[in-house]
Amino acid sequence: MTDYETLAALGFTEPAAKTSEAGPLPQQSRPEGVSGARENVEFPSRRSLRNAAPAPAAGAAVPTPTPAQPGSRRAAREALSSPVQSPGPAPTFTESTPRIPAFTATMPQVAAPFGTFDATPASGDTAGRERGRRSGRSAAAPAVARPSSTHGTRKRLSVAGTMVLVGGLFVSLTLPAYASTETPDVIADVAAKADGQVLALDKAAVDTASVTSDTRDGYDSTSASDLKRLYRDALRQRNIQMYLASGAKELGDDYPWATELSRSQGGGLSPLRYYVRECVDFVAWRLNRDAGSTHAPFKWDWSSLTPGGGSAHSWKSQWDKHGWPTSTTPAAGWVAWFPGANHVAYVNSVLPDGSVLIEEYNWGPEIYGQRIIPASSAIYLSPPPA
C-alpha cells in the first residue's frame, strides 16, 4: 500500500497546492480515488498513522498490500518483524545414521534496516553487538563476574606481607655494624685481649738511614737531588777536560777552584766570597798566596778587601777608602785595574820594554789566561799591607 492509499484510507487528503509570485506550483501526481484538498496538513509519523488507523468495517473489502520487492528495506523490515520460528527438538543420531560431511554455507550479508532487534545477543556474540550498534541500540553488555571473597582475602594478605617485608628492611638497616650473636661476656673478653696486644716493629726493617734512593714496588728511582748532583759532576768533568786542554797549569796557574762550576753553570761563591772563576776571585787568591794565606781562614776576602761591593768596578774606590797606595807605574804583585772595563788582573812582571805581563781569569770564557799590555792601559793597586 502506498502513502497516498494510506492517507486516503484514513480520511486525509494531500495539502493544498503551494503558490509563488509566478503562479501556482504544479501539484504532484496522485493516484486515482484521491481527490480534494486540505490546507496546512502536516504528515504525522508512520508509526502513529498505523496506530491511529480505524479497524475496517465488517464486510468491507480490505485492500491487498502490494508485495515488497526482494532486497528492499521494506522486505528487510518485514523479515525482521516476523516472529522467530522455534527450530524444534534437535534430531537424534545413532550409529546407523549416515553422517553428512560438515560444510560451511556462505550466506549473503543483508544490510540491516532502521529497526530494532528483539533478540539480545549473547555475551560472546560480537556480530550481534555490532548489528545492535548499527541499528541505534547498544547490545546488552555481558555480565561481569564479581571478584570472589577468596580473591579479596588473597589481596589483603599480599598487602600485609609487603608491609612486613618493608618494615624488616628498615630494621635490618638500623642495626649497628658491630652487632654480634655472642654474649656480652664473650665480647668483653675478646676486646680485653685486643687491647693487651702490642705492635712490635723491627728496627732493622724500618731503618732508612742507609737508603740513598727512593724505592717503589721493587723499582729504584733517582731523586731530584741525585739528578742535580749528577748534572754538576758532568759539568765539572767537562771543565777539567777544558782546563787540561788549555795548558793553564803548565803556564803557572795555581788557582784552586779552576774546575768548579762558574756562575753561568749554576755555581756559587768560593771561600773568598767572590764568584768562582771570576777575575776578582782569582786576584784575591793571588793576594792571599803572596801574603802566605793559602787555606781557610784566609786573610783577605770580600769583607776585608772590597766590603762595599764585589764588582771589579768598585775596587779603585775601595782602595782609596782603605788608604792603600795606587799608581800608574806597574810593579810585580800589584793589581791592574782597568777603568771602564769592570776588570782586574794580577801583574806577573814588567817586561824590559815597559810592557806588562798580566795573569787573569774570565777575560776569555771563564778560564785562566795571560796577556801583555801597555803600562798605560791600567791603574795599579798596591797589595794590602801585611
TrEMBL record:
This is CHAP domain-containing protein. Residues 52-63, 137-149 have a biased composition (Low complexity). InterPro entries: CHAP_dom, Papain-like_cys_pep_sf. Residues 1-98, 114-155 are annotated as: Disordered. Residues 254-382 form the Peptidase C51 domain. It comes from Protaetiibacter mangrovi. Gene3D superfamilies: endopeptidase domain like (from Nostoc punctiforme). Signal peptide: none annotated.
